[in-house]
Predict the 3D structure of the following.
Amino acid sequence: AQSVTQLDSHVSVSEGTPVLLRCNYSSSYSPSLFWYVQHPNKGLQLLLKYTSAATLVKGINGFEAEFKKSETSFHLTKPSAHMSDAAEYFCVVTLYNAGNMLTFGGGTRLMVKP
Amino acid sequence: GAVVSQHPSRVICKSGTSVKIECRSLDFQATTMFWYRQFPKQSLMLMATSNEGSKATYEQGVEKDKFLINHASLTLSTLTVTSAHPEDSSFYICSATDRGAGGYEQYFGPGTRLTVT
């Protein structure tokens, strides 16, 4: 079985300050992990993915995430928030032997203040 | 590459009617397509998984007679909400895995906003 917990339902930062969105996972096997972003009334856009290669993964728009097996975490970070980063972010886990089934975290709404 | 489209993007229908939503993989052959439902300010909930040419596998609690899924080709899956009711109003999102790329990453469509009046 696998599960994903996004520890914060809402995160508010000021423009230009760092972003940290937390994600912890539970998995019996080596997982693949993803971060997706969803803007209002839009579909999901892949930010980055971890698939058992480098543990520090760089994504689009300056985001990166580090896979820490010992902490079962995959936190998303960005050094400097931009107003356009305001959106909903989903941490997602999947297993190769789970038929490509994705398990979604509850989501974190990122708000960016000017 | 790996673009998934959905049609329509928004639909309003009357209670008791049926609505069909299309999901297409535009530049790849989809091994598997998935249908999700998203309530306001909530995460995505997997409704069903469909493979081309076979019956869809529905998640627990999802009525297969209510939400009909047809995956007639490697680039098209349809979700039909039959006898829609206001509680079926939601954001429906499909995704597809790319057969040619090993089929483990899902590419998401832009979603369809269904409103039942």
Summary: Chain B touches chain A at residues 4, 6, 31-32, 34, 41-44, 46, 49, 91, 93, 95, 97, 103-111, 113 (CB under 8 Å). The first strand of chain B starts at residue 4 and ends at 7. Chain B has no helices and eleven strands.
